Amino acid sequence: MSLNQRKENKMAEVNEMFSKVTGEQSFFNPKAKKEFTPFAKGEYFAHITEVESKMLDVKQGTYKARLYTFSVEAAEENKDKFFEFENIKGDLEKTQGDVYVGKKFRGKVWRFLEPQKDDTFESNSSGNKAYLRFCQNIGIECPTEVKTIDGEDVEVQLLPNLTTDDMLGQPIIAFVDKGKPFTDKNGNTKQYFDCKFCKKWDGGKRKEITTGGKNEIPF
User: Fold this and answer.
1) Cis peptide before 218, with omega less than 30 degrees from 0?
2) Around Cβ 28, how many Cβ atoms within 10 Å?
3) Rounded to whole angstroms, how far apart are CA atoms 72 and 105?
């Protein structure tokens, strides 16, 4: 085979390969690259989209509690808000909230249990302040009742055992900030933005969540 024939065959192979590539209409446009905007500390309109729960012994069994972990998703209503994030130089920079719509943050809340007969753990009812506020902020009623504690009549608020259906889709205002740094399995220090606590979203509408269901907690 002559040199010219080899060149012609090579060109044919290149053209055939190019035809296959362009036939599927796939290409890279560097100008279409979407820039990442760092998360900002602040209040986000959000909905609860995922819920998990587990029972834990706390402080080596001194207390017993149910830990609720959940995800919140930033709502469309954030697009008209402005946030300030820390840029790569360490300076604060403003951005419109549309860049955060759909972003998710993790949160948690504890519900400390009261010991019953034959239980060995202690009461930590004062530790339920955050859980009470969480229930109130998602529209769950916590009725009051008079109980005799250490020989004294005390008015307490009864705290429900929340279910998945109580929480999924509920509108809240999530206060987001950096969580505690931790070390991953590769020895790298990581730190994420978390939902530190929730506030009531006056006027917020419950969102239908297609995943999940009406499972009672615990799972």
Assistant:
1) yes
2) 6
3) 5
Scanning the chain, the segments in alpha helix (DSSP H) are 3-23, 129-137, 164-167
Note the pTM of the prediction, 2 decimals: 0.78
Could you tell me if 178 and 192 are in contact, meaning their C-beta atoms sit under 8 angstroms apart? yes
Closest CA to 36 of 3, 74, 71, 85: 85
Residues of the chain with pLDDT under 50: 212-219
CA distance 129 to 149: 18
Tokens of 85: 């994030």
Q: How confident is the model at residue 218, as a pLDDT?
A: 39
- For residue 49, give the H/E element and its range: strand 42-58
Q: Read off the amino acid at residue 111.
A: R
Using CA atoms, how far apart are residues 37 and 98, in angstroms rounded to an integer? 11
Distance (Å, whole) CA 129 – CA 210: 31
> Interior CA angle at 51 toward 126 and 156, to 5°?
25
In single-letter form, the type of residue at position 50 comes to: E
Contact indicator for 61, 119 with CB cutoff of 8 Å: no
What is 17-47 written as a DSSP string? HHHHHHHTT----GGGPPPP----SEEEEEE
